[in-house]
Design brief:
206 residues; mainly alpha; Arc Repressor Mutant, subunit A; Tetracycline Repressor, domain 2; globular; HTH-type_TetR-like_transc_reg
Length: 206
């Protein structure tokens, strides 16, 4: 989300952008509807036209993030040569998304926004993004590249590994370790995902 100015009819997006800027500069604790309104340059009552409260605004940002992530993952999968190679590509896209949208990425996985009973739309958006990975694993199973009895476990494992790498990079640890290893963080991400693929696909040979 790159919009930075208010246009009539686009108040919702303006407020969401203002909220992200606030999170990036001052942290999540600084967010209130009044403060977001001030950051956006609108009246203190304006946010209530679109968001009932602070939680609704944060949930909307989480949904938007997952929808953007899902779109990027879907495009990555469509461009991959094979389902198996797509798994490394998906991890690369996932990590890059976290780098491009760090504040939103962290917000998407906040515990209070991951409760389906409180934020069902956010949970559904997260599930839709994860389903792209799960479907790719299923395609690998159908092609004989992954064992069917471990498909669900492997989907979560790929997600966990990708998310861990994304978090390490955001916190500065992955780049530091990459330098110590004489490589760069993007190359290290690919090498790790390819090594994991080799470990779990002995019949594929790579």
């Amino acid at each position: 989300m790159k919009r930075t100015s208010y246009h009539h009819g686009d108040l919702r997006a303006t407020l969401m952008d203002a909220c992200l800027r606030l999170i990036e500069t001052e942290g999540l604790a600084a967010v209130s509807l009044r403060r977001v309104a001030r950051e956006a340059g609108v009246s203190s009552g304006a946010p209530y036209h679109h968001f009932a409260d602070r939680a609704a605004l944060l949930s909307a940002l989480s949904i938007d993030g997952f929808q953007q992530l899902a779109a990027e993952l879907a495009a990555t999968r469509a461009a991959a040569a094979t389902p198996l190679s797509a798994l490394t590509d998906l991890a690369r896209t996932y990590v890059q998304f976290s780098r491009t949208h760090p504040a939103q990425f962290r917000l998407m996985f906040r515990p209070e926004l991951s409760q389906p009973e409180k934020h069902p739309d956010a949970a559904d958006a997260g599930d839709a993004a994860f389903q792209i990975l799960a479907d790719t694993v299923a395609e690998c199973v159908a092609a004989g590249a992954l064992p069917a009895d471990r498909a669900d476990t492997l989907a979560v494992a790929w997600w966990g590994l990708g998310h861990g790498l994304a978090s390490l990079w955001l916190d500065g640890h992955l780049e530091k370790r990459s330098e110590q290893m004489g490589t760069r963080a993007p190359e290290l991400v690919d090498a790790i995902m390819q090594a994991f693929t080799t470990l779990v696909t002995p019949r594929a040979g790579a």
